[in-house]
């Protein structure tokens, strides 16, 4: 009795809140996609890097505005301080793949090739409130070049991104890589005589260009506007004259890169940094052409402003341009699946040295969703041929059949549940998505034959055929045992 | 000044203690190996499962003997209890792939096929004291069949394990899968009239069979012995007569499974459970033969006692039998790279229902070390062709060359560092393991040619050739720009 009272309640079998498990095709489809991307990155000279999932909170840094709550945004814990064991350090799960790259680039700076091209693919963790489609563990897929100040590195990343999208199956014309440059915007701000203390506000407002359009941004940059709810949004306080170059920048995209560059040169006026930015875009445009990447695949587009606040030079974004139906059945463009740009502060936190870097991150779940929407995520997800068990004393015979099929390259398995109820075996084959079931009872064994049941044809007949057609059982064939493999291969085509 | 005084010291760029990063070939060689194993598992009808890295401590359970220290053995942290947000639950990183399988098998028992064959590959985390070659994050690679009581499932796992070892490159004859059965041991203990309270001690002692041999185990089972340091080790207190069947069991391996089975039948005497165990081994032997897995690949071996304390039926272990040199230069067999067996308690903690399961876990790092020792870990780890930069205004030309090479399937990149010092570019190519460097200065560009430098031949000549031979520069060829790709492909063979 005393023991019973102490008995613990059974634990709940639940994935922790905000986390999920991936089954079968979830795993293989993502893997197939990432393998194809890795193949492109590899061919471009990028090397894989797999850092530990755990970092010291000190090295991660960034997510720690509040030292009293070192786990805001990350999953963190303190090591026990044990002599010879735990260090008492705070450790945390990485929240992205860039912070670990920064740590590695600093830690191994004497061993790594310079410049260092690396790609990384793997889970990251965010200690955030989960929501629909918003998980606390998800995949990232990054490629970065560390230690090159040349815009050739940026052009290469853009070309590689376009190649990667095609490698996973996105057709040319169904995507576009858009390229902008923070330096051009800086030049525009200079030309418009925007004060340094206004620059951040300007960036925040032009970030809304997508949503509120030209007139909306004009209002936001000057006197303010009412939003949809009727609330007054303060303006930045620029004059109309100051706002004009900013708007000119945002709307400077021409029909070709050549036209866009002319417009941009006008928008930056005499600003040295602005002209440097335009020259960089011109170089990137030339390089892309040299690499055989036409403007139908990657194009200069100053309306891309996402990330301009973070990046220091070229920025890029890959967008899928085909339409899908949203949850309300409305057509909309699929939208952004990757973004990146040039940043300088990567290693500086650790070494004090500015190291130029540029890179791109593909939104793994979004891209996979796009492939599924287009029916392009097809990894080999076909179920196995199921060898049913009519006579449990002849398991070895059934296993021999499955082995022969596998030796011929056919995915195959023997039913391993309780064989008593044959209906359960066919239900199992159905649940497994089996294309074919093999049946051999004692009678068939004596006659040296097997029944080969085409489950796909069978399902079709069950759905469409008349009773007579169904009775004729064209989906089930008796063949000699020696012809088993050939017959299955015939059915699988 | 005030600002300077507040300045934080720079963070240390260090992988946390006990963790490591994987670079380049570390990643691709492991990936290639796991891909080949996954292909074998897939062909056998196993589906991939990727559970979240994070579990509730409640679901992980097992590692919590001490409720005051819920993080003993695992990395654990408590969620903040926030309305609508964190649950206040203790979360932890998974310490293996079996505990998450148990949780999934219970949570999704109505959705998963039954039996459920799944494989899983991924990192696990242990909050243990790190040591040489002993990390706190490492890979596991498991395959399990949940919900089948049939020894056909065990036989299948053994056959699949043998196939997997060959798929990664281990030659037939260089490995052996050894199979034993806990039930046979139970029968032997019954036959020897070992008391229930002695059974665990007996298991602990026979676990030392590998080290101390027949006479050592005899002493340990009876009156005890002195270990190498001279310390007295207590014996279990069996009589010599009781110890005999146990020793007979351990040494019952014959030249063939047939002989071994005869010996085992003798060792278990009239024990019902023992005879059941011997029958199971006989069935497994027959099934392996039917699957074309000969006794040169998988064999019954009662001397395999590792895991007999944990498993409830068949146990298996894969051993690599070729010799390597250990750290002291002595020849020794490589040893165990995988192990598994049948266990019943998997889902019981959650549902109260016993669900039979069997599976195998491959030691990823050990198997990879074995492949490297045999020169079999060869993923495509060749460095890229490096296109050097003689004239930084012609970056687009160099990028066009790299693009053409890539389009022809050749891994290639443009040097992206500061091109001023050409020696640095060749040093870079060397560090990258580049097989070929491409050189085109202004003069060559005008003449429409490029220099193609065979770096592998070059290194060989530098090491072996006379001065005259070296001056002849046979490792560097001038070709027409249009022949660049063909010449590189010729060199790469």
Automatic annotation (TrEMBL), chains A, B:
Residues in Aminoacyl-transfer RNA synthetases class-II family profile domain copies: 1-384
Reaction(s) this enzyme catalyzes, per UniProt: tRNA(His) + L-histidine + ATP = L-histidyl-tRNA(His) + AMP + diphosphate + H(+)
Superkingdom of the organism of origin: Bacteria
Recorded GO MF terms: ATP binding; histidine-tRNA ligase activity
Keyword Transcription in annotation: no
Binding site for L-histidine: 96-98, 126, 140, 144, 306, 310-311
Location(s) in or outside the cell: Cytoplasm
GO CC annotation, single: cytoplasm
Predominant location: cytoplasm
EC number, as in UniProt: 6.1.1.21
Chain intervals for the UniProt region annotation (Disordered): 1-20
GO term, biological process aspect, one: histidyl-tRNA aminoacylation
One Pfam family named in its UniProt record: tRNA-synt_His
Keyword Zinc in annotation: no
Keywords per UniProt: Aminoacyl-tRNA synthetase, ATP-binding, Cytoplasm, Ligase, Nucleotide-binding, Protein biosynthesis
Assembly information from the UniProt record: Homodimer.
Protein name: Histidine--tRNA ligase
């Amino acid at each position: 009795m005393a023991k019973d009272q102490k008995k613990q309640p059974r634990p709940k079998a639940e994935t922790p809140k905000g986390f999920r498990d991936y089954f079968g095709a979830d795993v293989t489809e993502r893997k197939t996609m990432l393998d194809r991307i890795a193949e492109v990155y590899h061919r471009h000279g990028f090397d894989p890097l797999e850092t530990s999932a755990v970092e010291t909170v000190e090295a991660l840094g960034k997510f720690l505005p509040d030292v009293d709550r070192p786990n805001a945004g990350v999953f963190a814990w303190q090591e026990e301080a044990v002599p010879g064991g735990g260090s008492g350090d705070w450790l945390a799960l990485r929240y992205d793949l860039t912070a670990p790259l920064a740590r590695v680039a600093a830690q191994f700076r004497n061993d790594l090739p310079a410049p260092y091209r690396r790609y990384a693919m793997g889970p990251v963790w965010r200690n955030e409130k989960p929501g629909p489609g918003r998980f606390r563990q998800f995949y990232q897929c990054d490629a970065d070049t560390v230690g090159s100040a040349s815009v050739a590195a940026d052009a290469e990343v853009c070309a590689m991104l376009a190649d990667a999208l095609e490698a996973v199956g996105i057709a040319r014309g169904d995507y576009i890589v858009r390229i902008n440059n923070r330096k051009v915007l800086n030049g525009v701000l200079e030309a418009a005589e925007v004060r340094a203390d206004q620059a951040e506000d300007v960036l925040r407002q032009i970030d809304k260009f997508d949503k509120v359009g030209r007139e909306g941004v004009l209002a936001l940059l000057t006197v303010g506007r009412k939003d949809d709810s009727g609330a007054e949004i303060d303006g930045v306080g620029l004059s109309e004259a100051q706002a004009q170059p900013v708007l000119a920048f945002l709307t400077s995209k021409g029909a070709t890169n050549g036209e866009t560059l002319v417009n941009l040169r006008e928008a930056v006026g005499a600003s040295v940094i602005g002209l440097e930015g335009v020259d960089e875009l011109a170089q990137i445009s030339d390089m892309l052409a040299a690499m055989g990447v036409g403007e139908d695949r990657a194009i200069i587009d100053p309306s891309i402003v996402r990330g301009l606040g973070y990046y220091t030079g070229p920025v890029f974004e890959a967008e899928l341009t085909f339409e899908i139906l949203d949850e309300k059945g409305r057509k909309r463009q699929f939208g952004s699946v990757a973004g990146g740009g040039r940043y300088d502060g990567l290693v500086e936190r650790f070494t004090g040295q500015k190291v130029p870097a540029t890179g791109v991150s593909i939104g793994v779940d979004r891209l996979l969703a796009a492939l599924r929407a287009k029916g392009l995520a097809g990894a080999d997800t076909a179920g196995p041929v199921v060898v049913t068990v009519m006579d449990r004393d002849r398991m070895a015979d059934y296993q021999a059949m499955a082995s022969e099929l596998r030796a011929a390259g056919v995915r195959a398995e023997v039913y391993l549940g309780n064989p008593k109820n044959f209906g359960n075996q066919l239900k199992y084959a159905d649940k497994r998505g089996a294309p074919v079931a093999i049946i051999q009872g004692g009678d068939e064994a004596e006659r040296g034959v097997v029944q080969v049941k085409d489950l796909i044809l069978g399902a079709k007949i069950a759905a469409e055929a008349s009773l007579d057609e169904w009775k004729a059982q064209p989906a089930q064939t008796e063949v000699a045992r020696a012809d088993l493999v050939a017959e299955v291969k015939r059915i699988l085509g």
